[in-house]
Design goal:
With 317 residues, this protein is of the alpha+beta class. It is 31% helix and 26% strand. Bound molecules: adenosine-5'-diphosphate (ADP) and magnesium ion (MG).
Length: 317
């Protein structure tokens, strides 16, 4: 017998948390949350649709991870401290095996970052999962997209392109699922929350890379009313990636692939040397260019202009 809506919520989505700022969580008409005085509430929401954002055979655990990770990544990109999450679930049936695995993925990530699930909604329909995250930050320290200025140094964290390579391996049927480290980078991206915190008061602008580095850099430039020079020869390529793909493919994955959830950020030139020490120790920081006056992104390789057509992903293009 499939379980009903209320049993489902109670069984899978009512784990308590030890956050003292949750005055009332799951179970009432709405949650009551206490925002620390002097801090701004930071809110983000993201939806994953089966067939579009995750493959129909994706492990439910990875969907639970991913739907929270993409949201936490947005908070990381704001330099915010995450606190609470709401979950809207649309499911074709109340399949307990699926629910158990999904909830395990979601709670594992939530608990690692001290995030409490405080409410949601559950309906029958096509498989669509939406998470809203709430957090807070001192307003003057929030990392925005619009603060980059000519001369600022452009950085990206980690190894952009790995997730897109993992997705492509899955699509082509050449990956061994979760055992493949590139697939894990795609399914279990780590939101860069510690880096976001470290960049408060240091980065002039920041955003998370979800739709490919080039398109996302164009967004940052537009928001800041500036241009950028991207040094293609400086794009970081992990040995994991280069051992399986040509340099050209690695660059294509980084520039046009999605799902990296690394941070793209700018730092005033006179403070760029502070980045290495400020960043979490296991996460490499890469200088990949510079902000310029003007508009748009100019790609160079070893000082020579290179024509790189295209931008990031657009659902309606
Ligand atoms: P209402 O009809 O008032 O919207 P619901 O019956 O939809 O209430 O939900 C009951 C309680 O369970 C609410 O506190 C709601 O936030 C919570 N809830 C519902 N679905 C979920 C879910 N998928 N995850 C977490 N909490 C949920
Ligand atoms: Mg409801």
């Amino acid at each position: 017998m499939p379980i009903g809506e209320f049993d489902l919520i109670e069984r899978y989505f009512s784990r308590g948390s030890d956050r003292r700022d949750v005055l009332l969580g799951v179970g009432d008409d709405a949650a009551l949350l206490e925002v620390p005085p002097g801090r701004a509430l930071v809110a983000a929401v993201d939806t994953l649709v089966e067939g579009r954002h995750f493959l129909p055979d994706a492990p439910p655990e990875s969907i639970g991870h991913q739907v929270l990770a993409v949201n936490l990544s947005d908070l990381a990109a704001m330099g915010a401290d995450p606190a609470w999450a709401l979950l809207s679930l649309s499911l074709p049936e109340s399949d307990e095996t699926w629910l158990q695995s999904f909830a395990a993925g979601l709670y594992a990530l939530a608990e690692r970052h001290g995030v409490a699930l405080v409410g949601g909604d559950t309906v029958r329909g096509p498989r669509v999962v939406t998470v809203t995250v709430l957090g807070h930050v001192e307003p003057a320290l929030a990392l925005r997209r619009d603060g980059a200025r000519p001369g600022d140094v452009l950085f990206v964290s980690g190894w952009p392109g790995e997730a897109a390579a993992g997705l492509e391996a899955l699509r082509r049927g050449v990956a061994s699922g979760d055992a493949d480290p590139l697939v894990r980078r795609y399914r279990y991206a780590e939101p860069r929350l510690a880096l976001g915190r470290a960049l408060r008061g240091l980065a002039s602008a920041a955003m998370d890379v979800s739709d490919g580095l080039l398109g996302d850099l164009q967004k940052l430039c537009r928001a800041s009313g500036a241009g950028a020079r991207l040094d293609l020869e400086r794009l970081p390529v992990s040995t994991q990636l280069s051992s399986r793909h040509s340099r050209a493919d690695c660059e294509r994955f980084a520039l046009f692939g999605g799902d990296d959830y690394e941070l793209l950020f700018t730092v005033p030139a006179d403070r760029a040397a502070e980045i290495e020490a400020a960043a979490p120790s296991a996460l490499p920081m890469h200088r990949i260019g510079v902000i310029e006056a003007g508009a748009g992104v100019r790609c160079e390789r070893d000082g020579r202009l290179e024509d790189v057509p295209g931008g990031g992903y657009d659902h309606f293009a």
